[in-house]
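Show me a record, fold above all:
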Amino acid sequence: MAEEEEVIEAETATAVHAAAPLSPSSASKSKKRRIDSASRAEFDVELKSVLDWMDRTESTLQLLVSDNPQEPFTVEEQRVLIQDTESSVRSHQMDVQRLLTLGQTILTELKIAGEPQDSLIIVIKGLEERWENINDKLTETQTKVDLNYEMKKFNSELTALQELMASYEKYISNAETVEEDAPEITGQLDQCKIKMKAMQAHQDRIEALRIFSEQIVRQYEGADSVKSDFEDLLKKWNAVSDKYDERKRQLAEALDKVPPRTFLEATAIMNKWLHDIDDAIKKQTVQVAAETAMTSQLETYKDLTKEMQDHTTGFEYINRTGRDLISKSTAERGDELRSDLQALNSLWTEVSNVIEQRQAKLEKNISQVQEMKNQMDGLVHWMDEMDVFLHAPDPSSGDTATLEAQLQESNGVEEDIRTLQANVKNINSTWKSLLSEAEPTFREQVGSEISDLNARWEQVASLASQQNTRLETKLSKSQKVYDHIEALNIWLGEIKESLAHKDYAVENPEDLLEKAKKFKSLKAEVDEKQKEIEDISEEANTMIAQAPSGSLQELARLLMKLTALWSDVLARVERYCKLFQTAKLKWTDMKDLMETEGLYLKTLEKKVRKTSSASSDAEEISEELNDVETYLAEHSTENKRHIQTLATYLIDNCVLVDRVRREHDDFLKRYEKLESDARNKIQRLEKAIQQAQTIERQMLDMSQWMVDVSQLLQNRLDADMLAGDVPQENETLQLEFKQQEELLEELEGNVQDYKQQGRIEASTRLEQQTQLLKKHFAEVLVKFRKFQRPADFEPKMTHVWRELGHIQGTVHLVEVPSDDLQLIQQRHENCMKFYKTMSELKPEVETVLKTGRQIVERKQVDFPESLGKQLDAIKQLYNELGAQIKQNKADLEKALKLSKKIKKELSLVCEFVSSTNGVLDEREDTVESAKAEEELSFLKSTQEEVVKRESALTSVHDLIQQLQSLSEEVDVSESRDQAHKLSQELHDLAARMARRKTKLQEETFSIEARFVDFQTQIMKIKEWLGRAETIVGAHSRLSDSQQRLTPHRETIKTMQKQMYDMRSQVDEIRDQAIELMSKSDSYSRMVEPELSHINQRWEELAQKIRERATSVPPESPTVLERRTITQVAFTPSKSSSSSPSASPSPSLSIGGSPTTRAPKVVGGEVFDEALGKLHTHMDFFEPQIATDGQVTTADYRRGLEETAKYIEEKSNALIKEINNVTEEGEKLLGAAETSRDPVTHARVSNKLQELKIRWLSIQKDIEMKKLDLATLLPVYNSFTEQLASFQMWLVSAEERAAAVTDSGLELMLIKVVSHPGYPVLILVKEPPFSLGTGVYSYT
C-alpha cells in the first residue's frame, strides 16, 4: 500500500512539473494558439494547495498507524486527531471536486484547441486515485484507532478484574485451614460469604466485559486475542469461585460438626442456673404453720416452676442441638457431649421433681389446714344451735302430730351427729398427720382448740340421744292404736270392695274351687277377727275417754268406720259362701255325665274312621257297613237331656258360663257330627262297592286291548308299513291310545283319592295294578311311535350333510387376501354367495334338527343315541360354518372400507404433495419481494395443512395395521410402501417450505434492518435540518451591517457547503426509501410520507439558503481591501511560476485562509469548574457507600436510620448536580457543533460519558447499601430495645437487691439469669456483628 502511494505521489509531481510549460510565460514560443492561462493558473494554484494538504493528511495518518513513533499519541489523542482529519477530509471534499471539475474543463479546452492533454490527464487521474487512497486510508486508520480505543477500554477493565481476581485468589489460597471452635469457624464462614458476595457483585462487570469482547471481535478484524483473554479470565474467575464454594462447603460441614458458641454458652448458663436453684431449695424446709406463711412459701415455689417453664425452650434447644452434634461428631467427642447432656438432663429432672414435690406438699398442707379450720368453725356453730333445741320441753303424750314433728327434728339431729362425727374424726386424724411436721407454737394453739371441741361434742351427742329415746317411746304407743284401727278398716274395706264392686262369675273349674275355698276361709277369718275388733274398739274408747275433750276426733272417726264396715262384710261373706258350695256339686255331676257320653262318641268315631284304611274289595266294605249301622241303633239319649239341665243351672248362676256353654256346645256338635258322619259313611261305603266293581271291569278291558293293538302294530312294522301308508288306521289308533291314556290317568286319580281318604291298602293294590298296565301300555306306545315316524326324514338329512360338506371344503376361499381392492371385492362376492347358500339351507337344517329331535325324543328309531349325535354334529358344523362365513363377511367388509379409505387418503396426500410442489415452483419463479408477507402467510397455512396431512398419513398407517390385523395372510406391502414413500415426500415438502420460510424471514429481517437504518438516517437528517433551519432563520433576522461581517457571510457559505456534503446522504436515503417501498407495501405506507416530508423540508431549506446567499450585502470597503491585500501577498509571481522547480503557493479557500481556525467555544471553563466540583463531591461520597453493601462502623456511630436518610439526601443532591452539569455539557456540545470545534466536542462528550459510567457505579453501591440497611435495621432496633429494657431492669433489680437479705439473694440471682434480657447482656460483650476490614456484618 505504501509503495502504491509513493508511485501515485511521484506521478502526480511529474505531471505537475510537466504541466509547468503550459504557463503564460512560454506562450510566445509556441506556433499554435495557446489557451488563456488564467484557468490553468487557478488550477495549478489549487492543485498545489490540495497536494500540500494531502501530504499533511497522509503524514498525519501515517503517524497514527506507525508502530514505533518517537512520541506516541495516547488513544484519546489519536481519536481527536482522527476526528480532526475526518473533518478536514470532509471540508476538502468540495475543493477536490471543484479542482477535478476545473481540470475536466481545461481538458475540454485543450481538446478543442488541439493541444496535448496527456500530462493533465495523468495529473487528474493521479489526483483522483490519491483522493481515493486518502479516504481508504482514513477509513482504515479510523478503524484501527477505534480498535485501539476499544482495546484500551477492554484491557483496562480486564486488568482491573484480573487484579480483583488476584486478590480473591490470594485470599482463598491463604485460607486453607479450618478452625476447630465454632466462633472461629463462624468468622471464617462469614468472611468467605462476604468474599463470595463481593465476587457476585462483580458478576455484572464480567457479563458486561463478555458482551464488550464479543462486540469487539464481531466489529473488528484481528481482535481474536480479546476473546482468548476474556476466556482465560473467565476460566480463572470460575475456578476461584469454585474454590470459594468448596471453602464455604467445608466450613459449613465443619460448623455442623462442632458445638456452636450459643450452645456452649446456653449449656453453661443452664448448668449454673440449675445448680443455683438446687442449692437454694436444699437450704429451705417445708413445715406446717400458719396459712399465710405457707402461702408465701408456695408462691416462691410457683415462681420457680414458672421460671422452669420459661427455660424449657432453651433446655429443649440444648437437647436437640446436643443430639444433632452427637450424631455428627466423632465417637470420642460424641461420648463427651452425651455425658454432659445426660448430667444436665439429670439435674433438670432432679430440680423439677423437688420443686414439684415441695409445691404439692405445700398445697396439700394448706388445703388440709384450711379444711380443718373450716370444719372446726362449722362444728362450733352447729353445737351452739343444738344447745337451744336439746333443752326445750317434750310434747304431751297422745299428740302424734307434734310428737312426729319433734321426733323428726330429733332424728335430724341424730343424723347430723352421725354425719358430723366423720368431720370430728377427720379433724382429729388431720391434726395427728400434721402434728409431727407442725411448728411448736402452731401445734400448741391448735391442740388446745381441738381438745375443747371434742369435750363439747361428747356432751351434745349424749343429750340428743336421751331426747330421741323419750320421743320414740311416746310416739310408738300412740301410733300403735291408730295403726291397728287403720289396718282393720283397710282390711274390712278391701273385703267390702272385693265383694261389692267385683263380678264373682266363675270362669273355670279351678276358679270355682278357689272361690269356694276362698269364701270358706274368708268366713273362718272373719270369725277369728271378731274378738280382735272388739278388743281394739274397747281400747280406743278408753283412750278417747281419757283424752281431753275434742283432742282425739280422728280416733273417734276411725272407730265408727270400723263398726259399720264389720256389719256389712259379715253379711256378704255368709251369702257367697253358700252359693259357691252348691255350684261345685252341680259342676261335678255334669262332668261325670259328659265323660260317659264321650266314651260312646269315641267308639263311634273309631268306627267311622276305620273305613279310611279298608281295602278296595267289595265284600270287606259290606262288613264294615253293617257294623256302623248296628252301633248307632243300640245307643240311648237320656244322658244327653240331663247334661243340658245341669248346664242351664250353672249358666244361670254365672258359674263357668263360658266353659259350660263351650263344652256343652262342643258335646252337642260332636254328637250330631259323628251321627251325621256315620250316616254319610254308610252312603260312601255303598258307593265304594259300586266303584270297585267298575274299576275291575275297566282294567280287564284295557289289558285285552293292549294285546290286540300290540299284535297289529308288530305286523305293520314287520311289513314296513308306517302311519303315512295307512292314515285312517293311524287316526283310529291315535284316538284309542288317547282313550287308554285317559283311563290310566283316571286310575292314577283313583289311587290318589284312596291315599287322601286314608285307604292305604286299597291305594297300594290299585297302584300296583295300574303300574302293570302302564308298563304294558308303554311297550305298545313305543311300537306305535315307530309306526308314526316321518318317511322323508332320512333323505333331507343326507342332503343337508352333502351341502354343508361342500361349503366346508371351499370356505377358505373367502378370507381377506391382501390390500388389493379388486381382489377383496371378488372375495366379498364369493362370501356373499356362501352367505346366501347358508341362509337358504337354514330352514332345511332347522327342519331336520327339529324332526330328528322329535324322533330321538319319541325313540322312533332303533338307535336314538346315534341319531342324536348325528344331529349334534350337523348343528355344530352349521354353526361353525355360519360363524366363520359371518366373520369372513365382516372382515371382508371392513377390509373393503379400510382399503378404500387407504387408497383415498393416499391419493389425497399424493395430490396435495404434487399440487403444493407445483405451487411452490410457480411462486419461487414469480413471487416478488413486496409479496413476502403474503408468501409467509401462504407458507404458514400450507405448513398447517402439511401437519394435517402428516396426521392423515399416521391414520393411514393405523388403517394398514388394522388391515394387517384381520389375518396373518393379508399382504399390505404395496400400501405400506406407498405410505412410506408419501411420508418421505411430505417430509421433503415440509423441509422445502421451512427453507423457503427461513429465506423469506431473513429477507423480512433484512428489510426491517434497512428500515431501522433508514429511520436512523432520517432522524439524523431531520436533526441537521432542524439546526440548519434555526441557523438560517437566525441569519435572516440579522441587520445588513451584521450580515456584511465576515463570520456571518461565512455562515451561509458554510451552510451551502454542508448542504452539498449532505446531498449524498439524502440521495442515499432516497434510494433506500425507493428500495423499501418496492420491497413491501406496509413499508411503502410508512416510508413514503417520511420521504415526502424530508424532500419538502430539503427543498425549502435549499431555497432559503440560496435566497440568503443572493441577499447578503457586499463586504465593507475596509474588509474588502484587507482581503485583497492578503490575496496579493499570497499570489505567486509569474517569474516564480515559470521555474520548473518552483512549487505552487497555497491558495485561499472559499471560506478564507486555511490557517484560520474556528472561533473558540464559550462556556468551557464554567463546565470544567462545575464538573470538577461534582467529582469532588462524588469522591467524598463514594467511599461511604462503596462497601459492597455492608454496614460500616461509622454507620453504627451515626445511627442506621440517620445513615439511610443521609444516603437518600446526598444521592438526591448529587442527582440535581449531575443534571445541571449534563445540561451545561449539552449546551457546550451544541455550541461546539455550531462552531465546528471537534476537539471541544470530543472532550466534553468523553467527560459526560465518564460521568455517566461513574454515576451508574455509585447508584449500584447505593442500592446495595440501602438493601443491607433495610435488612439489618429491624434486627438492630430489636437488639437495642432489649438491651435498654434489660439495663433498666438491672437498675431496678439493684435497688431491690439492696433491701434483700442474704437468704433471698440466691433466688434474686436466679431471676436475673432467667430474665429474657440476660442473653442480650452476654451478646453485648460479644456483639452479633463480626468485624472484618472496617465493616460490620450481622451474624
Summary: DSSP finds 37 helices and three strands in the chain. The longest strand covers residues 1329-1332.
